[in-house]
C-alpha cells in the first residue's frame, strides 16, 4: 500500500511540475500579449493625435535670382523629414532637410535655367534694339508683340508633421518664366 501511495505521489508531483511549466509558459505568452496590446494602444493614440493635429505648413516657390529657385516655408508649424523636388523644363533638383521651420527656405540652383534666361535676355535685347530702330507701324503686329517664352515649373514637397503624419505639396506652372528679361 505504501508503494502505491508513493507511486501516486510521484505521479502527482510530475503533474504538478508539468502544470507549473505550462503556467510559466502561459505567463510568458501573457506578457508578450500585454506588450503587443500596449504597442497597439500607442499606435492608436498616435493615430488619434494625428487625426486632430493642427498643421499649418504651406510652400511658395519662385525665382530669387537668375538660376536660383527658392521654396519658402509659410505657416506656423514645423515640417519634418522634408524631401523637395523642383523641375524646371527638363532640369530637376532635389533637396533633403530634417526640419524646416516657419519662414525658412529651401534653395535650389538651376544652371541650365540660368543659361536659358541669359540667352532669352540677349534675344530680347536684340529684338528690342531692332524694333526701336524701325519706324512704328500700326499694321505690323510683330513689331508690337510682347516677347515671352513659357517654361514649365513643377514643385513637389513631401514632409511629415511633428506627430509623423505625412503631407504633400504639388504645384505646376505651365506658363512660367525663368525671371525678368531686363
Briefly summarize what is shown:
This protein has 182 residues and is an alpha+beta fold. It has helices spanning 2-52, 111-133, 141-144; strands spanning 57-65, 68-75, 79-88, 91-100, 105-109, 151-160, 166-176.
Walk me through the topology.
Blueprint: H1 2-52, E1 57-65, E2 68-75, E3 79-88, E4 91-100, E5 105-109, H2 111-133, H3 141-144, E6 151-160, E7 166-176
Antiparallel strand pairs: 1-2, 2-5, 3-4, 3-6, 6-7
If helices are DSSP runs of H or I spanning 4 or more residues, what is the number of helices?
3
* Helical fraction: 40-55%
What share of the residues does DSSP label as strand, in percent? Answer: 25-35%
- Neighbour order of strands in the largest sheet: 4-3-6-7
Query: H/E order of the elements?
Result: HEEEEEHHEE
- Mean pLDDT score, rounded? 85
Structural class: alpha+beta
Name the poorly predicted regions.
Answer: none
What key attributes describe this structure?
182 residues; alpha+beta; four-stranded antiparallel beta sheet; three-stranded antiparallel beta sheet
Give a description of the structure.
With 182 residues, the chain is an alpha+beta fold. It is built from three helices and seven strands; from the N terminus they run αβββββααββ. The chain has helices spanning 2-52, 111-133, 141-144, and strands at residues 57-65, 68-75, 79-88, 91-100, 105-109, 151-160, 166-176. The strands form two sheets. The chain has a four-stranded antiparallel sheet, with no helix packed on it. The mean pLDDT is 85.
Amino acid at each position: 500500500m505504501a508503494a502505491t501511495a508513493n507511486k501516486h505521489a510521484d505521479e502527482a508531483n510530475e503533474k504538478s511540475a508539468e502544470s507549473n511549466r505550462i503556467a510559466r509558459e502561459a505567463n510568458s505568452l501573457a506578457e508578450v500579449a500585454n506588450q503587443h496590446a500596449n504597442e497597439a494602444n500607442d499606435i492608436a493614440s498616435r493615430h488619434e493625435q494625428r487625426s486632430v493635429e493642427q498643421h499649418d505648413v504651406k510652400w511658395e516657390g519662385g525665382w530669387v535670382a537668375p538660376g536660383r529657385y527658392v521654396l519658402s516655408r509659410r505657416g506656423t508649424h514645423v515640417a519634418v523629414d522634408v524631401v523637395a523636388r523642383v523641375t524646371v523644363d527638363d532640369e530637376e533638383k532635389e533637396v533633403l532637410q530634417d526640419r524646416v521651420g516657419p519662414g525658412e527656405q529651401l534653395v535650389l540652383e538651376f544652371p541650365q535655367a540660368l543659361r536659358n534666361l541669359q540667352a532669352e535676355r540677349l534675344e530680347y535685347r536684340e529684338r528690342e534694339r531692332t524694333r526701336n530702330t524701325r519706324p512704328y507701324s500700326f499694321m505690323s503686329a510683330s513689331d508690337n508683340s510682347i516677347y515671352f517664352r513659357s517654361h514649365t515649373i513643377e514643385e513637389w514637397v513631401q514632409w511629415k508633421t511633428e506627430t509623423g503624419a505625412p503631407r504633400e505639396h504639388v504645384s505646376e506652372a505651365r506658363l512660367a518664366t525663368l525671371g525678368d528679361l531686363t
